[in-house]
């Protein structure tokens, strides 16, 4: 049930030879994102459970889920970009049906992130699912 944007990332990953290149790719995805407005970096948008500072600001328009995000760590900004590709544009009622762990496993991320980064990634996914469930 992945979006076209996420499928593009999966296809790009298949062409990258090693994890150093894949990490660079993820970081570049994060660099390409617009920074989150400082006015949106408030306790309500901060994600607990992440080693770095992370903010996710969701919006729902026309029944579709969308979010912006930011972090003080470049790799985490990249992970936010990957999650945006996975979730943005999904009907809010279907966000909870997205098996993020399985989709991210297609990229091999589960095996190549530190325990802290994996926990932070799970915390971001949990926040996305919570916000969507409260809005559905």
TrEMBL record:
Residue stretches making up the Fe-S metabolism associated domain: 11-129
Pfam family, one: SufE
Family indicated by similarity: Belongs to the SufE family.
Record protein name field: SufE family protein
High-level lineage: Bacteria, Pseudomonadati, Pseudomonadota, Alphaproteobacteria, Rhodobacterales
